[in-house]
Design goal:
With 229 residues, this protein is mostly helical. It contains eight helices and three strands, in the order H-E-H-H-E-E-H-H-H-H-H.
């Protein structure tokens, strides 16, 4: 977690975001990413349990809209937010300072990258002028061959990773002292994920569908945990 959100301050900021507008969990994640210029990217495992906890405490409520849980701050949540306005002001100032520092670092990195790229392009143009057209074509063919080799190697590694991933899911529960039911559960999870991956590959994945899928996966994980207890 970002140091800015230590000591329960993420809870406070979630209330602040929901006070601005009702939001679903995936939207909260993307909003935090945007406000920190992509440097801080909270995981669903960070955001969703905290939203659930806020709801348990009566600070937020939710309704299902188009398959997504949309959270809204309650009157009790607004009361807590109003009681902590000073702390919220300090937190927002720290966030502004952090974002400003990030922006400065990004600007410096971009400037250095542009300078380096300009130097490389200048040197490349010089080399092309000095070399013959035949040499340039030969270098291009060699580079193209290397790109193709790397592409095949990446594909090979990806296929190996997929096979290993399936093996781990299917057999990861079959170690010493485990039960046959554990192995079957691993196989079921592997088949489920593979089916979802196939559907996703054939579909048009948008921000809205990702948000719906995120809520569905979180609810499914919670129900599986409850069933296994």
């Amino acid at each position: 977690m970002s140091p800015v959100f230590g000591h329960g301050r993420l809870r406070l900021y979630l209330l602040k975001l929901l006070e601005e507008s009702p939001r679903h969990g995936y939207e909260v994640i993307r909003l935090l990413q945007d406000r920190f210029l992509g440097v801080y990217s909270p995981s669903p495992g960070t955001i969703y349990p905290r939203l659930a906890r806020l709801e348990e405490e009566g600070l937020v409520t939710h309704e299902v809209v188009d398959g997504k849980k949309v959270f809204t701050i309650s009157d009790r949540g607004r009361d807590e937010l109003n009681e902590r306005l000073d702390e919220l002001a300090d937190l927002e100032q720290e966030i502004s300072d952090s974002v400003r520092d990030i922006a400065r670092e990004v600007k410096e990195d971009v400037r250095d990258t542009v300078k380096s790229l300009r130097e490389e392009l200048t040197q490349m143009a010089r080399d092309v002028r000095q070399g013959s057209e035949q040499d340039a074509r030969k270098a291009w063919r060699e580079q193209k061959t290397e790109w193709q080799r790397q592409k095949h190697e990446w594909q090979r590694q990806t296929d190996e990773w997929k096979d290993e991933w399936k093996r781990v899911w299917a057999n990861g529960f079959t170690g010493e002292g485990s039960r046959a039911g554990d192995a079957r559960l691993g196989q079921m999870l592997a088949e489920f994920v593979e089916e979802v991956r196939r559907d996703a590959a054939a579909a048009q994945v948008s921000e809205e569908t990702l948000a719906t899928a995120q809520d569905a996966l979180y609810d499914a994980a919670r129900r599986i945990r409850d069933a296994l207890r």
